[in-house]
Amino acid sequence: MPNSFYHKELTEAQWDRIKYLFKEPKKVGRPTLNPRMVLKGILCILRTGARWRDLPARYGNWNNIYHKFRQWCASGLFQLLLQSLTTDAAHSALLEIDSTFCKVHQSACSGLKNQAIVSSRGGKNIKIYVIINERMQLLGVVLTGG
Length: 146
Description:
Elements (H helix, E strand, L loop, with lengths): L11 H7 L16 H14 L13 H14 L1 H9 L9 E9 L14 E3 L2 E11 L4 E8 L1
């Protein structure tokens, strides 16, 4: 199986693994966004690193996609989606861990209290760990105090 990170679209097999996480749309009221198209739009932005306003129109209104992404992150649904999509990749024989230190800008510490941001003599720091398998599939990201 080729590396799914480089695929342009979400495959049928991937969608079948995660579609149970979404509620059935309501029959009354404003029509809901298609969760598959929303996820495709979010993955497009994350893959390319483009601005939200530059999201291709085929995924829908960029503002709606952005707000749905924020809702999914706040509710923990996006983390569940990523975990569900990487379950097969976690059974690999070879796992690699890489990490880096990042200096946190002072404005990043003002609103939210993140347990991973720590103060040291060099300022506020955070350490980012990334876990991948031999096919370069992302298995997890962990933030700790730097």
